[in-house]
């Protein structure tokens, strides 16, 4: 079994209205030093196979087709082999 | 200047309907090995100060008060000193 972590971020040139909105809240609360907040996704899941190549292929396709929007987001992933209880081997 | 990265995740016992929904999509697309998808947030921003203690305090408070929901989410953060163009020192 493998544990996968995928980080999805908007490309730098794409506006991030959610980040902007949260940062306005920061200013209202008095955090005056916070700049350029950008909010992406952090996704964790398991891939139930012992074949690392297959696991990697599924993680990549899952990220491309469902977890990210290829028009405006980039993703990076990492894969670790774990035992069935989810601990690192 | 410091660059901060904050990861916000739902606590393990809290249901994640968004993750469940995406995983159903995965099954429809034929990814049969994907399990327990959970979707959190990955937040990046800068803190415009040279005082590491102040930066850390702002990152923590910002995470607690705005970036996460303390009822059902946990967060972890990391801070790196960077020069003004955003590169690691």
UniProtKB/TrEMBL annotation, chains A, B:
Class of this enzyme: ligase
E.C. number(s) listed in UniProt: 6.3.5.3
A biological-process GO annotation: 'de novo' IMP biosynthetic process
Pathway as given in its UniProt record: Purine metabolism; IMP biosynthesis via de novo pathway; 5-amino-1-(5-phospho-D-ribosyl)imidazole from N(2)-formyl-N(1)-(5-phospho-D-ribosyl)glycinamide: step 1/2
GO terms for MF: ATP binding; phosphoribosylformylglycinamidine synthase activity
InterPro entries the UniProt entry points to: PurS, PurS-like_sf
Keywords assigned: ATP-binding, Cytoplasm, Ligase, Nucleotide-binding, Purine biosynthesis
Cellular component terms (Gene Ontology): cytoplasm
Predominant cellular place of this UniProt entry's protein: cytoplasm
PANTHER family the record matches: PHOSPHORIBOSYLFORMYLGLYCINAMIDINE SYNTHASE SUBUNIT PURS
Family: Belongs to the PurS family.
Oligomeric form and interacting partners: Part of the FGAM synthase complex composed of 1 PurL, 1 PurQ and 2 PurS subunits.
Biological function: Part of the phosphoribosylformylglycinamidine synthase complex involved in the purines biosynthetic pathway. Catalyzes the ATP-dependent conversion of formylglycinamide ribonucleotide (FGAR) and glutamine to yield formylglycinamidine ribonucleotide (FGAM) and glutamate. The FGAM synthase complex is composed of three subunits. PurQ produces an ammonia molecule by converting glutamine to glutamate. PurL transfers the ammonia molecule to FGAR to form FGAM in an ATP-dependent manner.
Protein name (record): Phosphoribosylformylglycinamidine synthase subunit PurS
Gene name of the encoded protein: purS
């Amino acid at each position: 079994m493998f544990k996968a972590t995928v980080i999805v971020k908007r490309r730098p040139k794409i506006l991030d209205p959610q980040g902007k909105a949260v940062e306005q809240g920061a200013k209202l609360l008095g955090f005056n030093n916070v700049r350029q907040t950008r909010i992406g996704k952090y996704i964790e899941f398991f891939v139930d196979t012992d074949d690392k190549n297959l696991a990697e292929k599924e993680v990549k396709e899952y990220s491309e087709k469902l977890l990210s929007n290829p028009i405006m987001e980039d993703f990076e992933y990492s894969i670790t082999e774990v035992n069935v209880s989810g601990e690192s081997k």
